[in-house]
Amino acid sequence: MINHPPNFQGCLKGKVAVITGAARGIGRAVAIAFAREGAHIAGIDICSAVFPPSGVQPSRPEDLNETGRLVKETGSRWLGFILDQRNLSTLRTAADQIAQEYGGISILFANAGIQSFKPLLEMEDEDWHTQIDVNLNGTANAIRAFAPHLVKRGGGRIIVTASTQGRHGMKNGAAYSASKWGIIGLMKSAALELGTYGITVNALIPGLIDTPLTRHEERYAQALQEAGKQPKGYPADEEEARKLLSLKSPLGIPWIDPNDVAPVAVFLASDAARMISGATYDVTGGDSAHNSA
Predict the structure, then answer these.
(1) Catalytic: which of 102, 176, 220, 281?
(2) Which of 40, 19, 37, 36 is nearest to 28 (CA)?
């Protein structure tokens, strides 16, 4: 059952929103939240394995179709695209198709990303390049493909998904941390460049979200190892990780529901946020209190 975010009284009525990583998790939650506020949605996802060693079960075409079904239940329109955001030309083709179908594009939520863990001294080229290419280069590609349509429309909103690991270092996660840290720099640079066209650019900083990206055996084992405990295997590691993460969280939450992130995206996409650009918005269950500033 979906825990719907609060109603913003149709604040996105008539807008057209493009969402990458829309098949599940934060992408799906935001797609539904945008649709409930009146936006028409175009959802993009690769719907296949990007980096099998990560331990994360990949999204499937059925997942993207389910997002579309839930969007259409709200009365909003839906277009789905299965593509790899590392391919700029396919993103540009999709952008043209969306703009032609909907008559323009108002909002880009560049959310797609992957995560994997490997010590730097054991890291192969593929470990590093895949995360940088998908997360950082892919987000830049999304902006490069869709921002011209926002310029053509006379303004709009761009929201990117970084991570709390983009605010600090991460043991055995250098590639992921670097990619998400880079997304924050990308966002701030884009905000400076695109503001003249009436486009705001901001970043969502999620903490540990209840999605397949953070809910898998490798991630549970890592949480235990960081606490000096010996992993015992699934499902014992999951329960132990839940306890450890709950104790570590200021709000006592091990994983955050994606629907608790969606209202922040709705706000940043709305006219209420028209004077906000170049900013980061944390939804971390209190983990942000550990940041230096």
Answers:
(1) 176
(2) 19
